[in-house]
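Q: Please design a sequence for this.
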């Protein structure tokens, strides 16, 4: 089983990640992880924090001479902004009270619920960990699992399909087109016309002191049939992937394949007919999004996630001070206008982490060589059916 943990606060010294369960012999370089971290920091509508942080990873353990050892992999990302928060986020009790407490919860954040749950009187104790800054480490860990999936011909890509009601069109585009054009777009949208409208919409929101959400799509190519299972609720691959995407801050809904559209359709319009040719089963449509009965069916996996607008606004909403109980207009903390493009990269990481876990579960081995041997034997079995 693949397991991972992250630690660290938004303005703390650093972010730490530990990934346990990666087999030995996987080629891994820090620069491969840094490329993914750079992708997360891009996107029109990001805040000034992205101008401060230039995320770089340090591999602390689990890798020797560019190859994984089979032992836990530990990663570190320094927070450059720590220099401005050293006393405010100090672990030393002598620095207690060096910065005023935050007592005014922001609507839409974990502020109030977190303060109630953990009995905090200073909301900074909540917002520092609940911040989406933590997702930088998830992207770093996801880069490792992307390298693992690549060994088996699998690829995870993403693109933005909607921001602020502006919808993209991808009809006629190949998956390669989508990937290349999304990476060229400031909002990770392969539709150039829609990209321009999305940017204009974000500018409009910025002028108003408001924010915007949207939808991104994850596409996984090269997945074998047989990942996940129907035998228990928590083994279904669609439930595992949905959980992974819903764990990303501000994600409010996930769908696969046609998703909610099927509510309007007849069954005969929805279900993918099965064909057989050249020693393989296949489907001419992929309305199921590559998953049937909680198991991958060998077609591309298609997932979409909806992200709410960032709740930190220059246009203040009403709230109540947790100490005085007096009403006030919510305070503004440095934030993004729109983070949907960035969230799509985090989505890739979370899907890669979950699929790598499923691959290790299905084809498990202590080394990449052993895992590949098991995988190749399974593929031969599928071809022989």
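A: Design:
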């Amino acid at each position: 089983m693949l397991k991972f943990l992250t630690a660290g606060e938004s303005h703390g010294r650093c972010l730490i990640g530990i990934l346990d369960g990666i087999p030995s012999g996987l080629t891994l370089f820090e620069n491969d992880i840094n490329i993914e971290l750079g992708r997360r920091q891009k996107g029109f509508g990001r805040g000034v924090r992205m101008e401060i942080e230039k995320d770089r990873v340090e591999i602390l353990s689990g890798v020797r001479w560019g190859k994984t050892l089979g032992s836990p992999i530990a990663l570190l990302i320094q927070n450059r902004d720590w220099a401005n928060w050293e006393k405010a986020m100090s672990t030393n009790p002598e620095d207690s009270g060096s910065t005023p407490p935050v007592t005014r919860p922001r609507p839409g954040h974990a502020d109030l619920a977190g303060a109630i749950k953990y009995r905090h009187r200073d909301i900074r104790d909540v917002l520092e960990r609940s911040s989406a800054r933590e997702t930088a480490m998830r992207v770093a860990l996801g880069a490792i699992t992307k390298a693992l999936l690549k060994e088996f011909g699998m690829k995870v890509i993403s693109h933005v399909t909607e921001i602020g009601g502006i919808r993209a069109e991808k009809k006629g585009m190949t998956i390669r087109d989508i990937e290349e054009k999304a990476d060229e777009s400031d909002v990770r949208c392969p539709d150039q016309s829609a990209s321009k409208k999305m940017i204009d919409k974000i500018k409009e929101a910025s002028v108003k002191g408001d924010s915007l959400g949207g939808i991104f799509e994850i596409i996984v190519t090269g997945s074998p049939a047989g990942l996940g299972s129907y035998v228990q609720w928590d083994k279904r691959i669609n439930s595992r992937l949905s959980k992974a995407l819903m764990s990303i801050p501000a994600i409010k809904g996930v769908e696969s394949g046609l998703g909610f559209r099927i509510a309007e359709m007849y069954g005969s319009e929805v279900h993918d007919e099965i064909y057989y040719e050249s020693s393989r089963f296949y489907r001419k449509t992929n309305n199921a999004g590559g998953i049937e009965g909680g198991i991958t069916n060998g077609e591309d996996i298609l997932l979409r996630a909806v992200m709410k607008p960032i709740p930190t606004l220059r246009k203040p909403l009403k709230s109540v001070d947790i100490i005085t109980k007096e009403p006030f207009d919510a305070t503004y903390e440095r934030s993004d206008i729109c983070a949907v493009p960035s969230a799509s990269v985090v989505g890739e990481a979370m899907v890669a982490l979950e699929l790598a876990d499923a691959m290790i579960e299905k084809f498990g081995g202590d080394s990449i060589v052993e895992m590949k041997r098991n995988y190749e034997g399974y593929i031969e079995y599928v071809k022989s059916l």
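Q: Thanks. Anything notable?
A: The longest strand covers residues 155-163. The CA atoms of residues 44 and 199 lie 7 Å apart.
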